[in-house]
Hints:
15% helix, 6-stranded antiparallel beta sheet, alpha+beta, Tumour Suppressor Smad4, elongated, 295 residues, Rossmann fold, 6-stranded mixed beta sheet
Amino acid sequence: MSADILVVFKKNFEAVHDRAMDQIRADLENLVQTRGIRAEFTAREKVRHSDFIGRDLVIVVGGDGTLTSIAHNVGADTPVMGVNSHPRSDDPSGSFGFFMGSDPENFAADILKALGGDAIDNDLPRLQAEIVTTSGNRIKCDPALNDLLISNTHQYQPSHYRLQRDCDEMNGDIDVVQHSSGCLFSTFVGQGAWFRNICDIDGKTFSRSKINSNYLFVSRELDQEQRKPGEYMAWTAEPTIITSDMHRGYVVSDGWDETHFIRGATITISLDGPRLHLLTFREKIVDKMDDWLES
């Protein structure tokens, strides 16, 4: 059962988090001694992309924010295991841990399942934005597990852009100039994090067969008279193309790293990002969203 494991943890001074880390270190040290695994620990604030290369498993200790902040470093070939260091089930002020499949109490048993190939493998799509600059350079932004924002870097100024999308099953071709507060894109599993606070889709359900191919789109704070189907909100598999008419804008993946662009750049958004293999142990991620799926 030899394996090369990287453990990334949230660095703070909370006693509950320290106790969780002590438990996880002890459980992994036992496997180092008895099974010959290799385990390396690094704080989220110090981790680099090169730290993830060649790993058999990445373990993220913290909450959903910790996981989304480092998941963009993980490719499609490396499984990720989230450990909620402060579960809300134990403390109302703790983390909900939507993406976190384990906790300190269950970690010892769960890590054996992960290493033995007995965990639930949630093969999750991720959004990707590709920027083509006016000089022809291509820049791929970090993949987003939850949501991806494109807007003016000065949030107090409107975002001016041309919006284009080929026809899909619900809407015809889209080609329109918009002034909004920017565009928000979300995966199906990421819609609860931010999207539903911006766009009223309460009561909307989604086809289970499309949750791995379609994504959600909304033009934030678009004028009421401009809110046409496909232009204001869409559930689509077709790439969206945005041509910037902003002096300076940015792409923000999962609320973390920013990639900047200037007027004239085109940004193509799709679900072509590397998929994330997220391990859970008692239920699938999508089962937590059963109320949002068509029966």
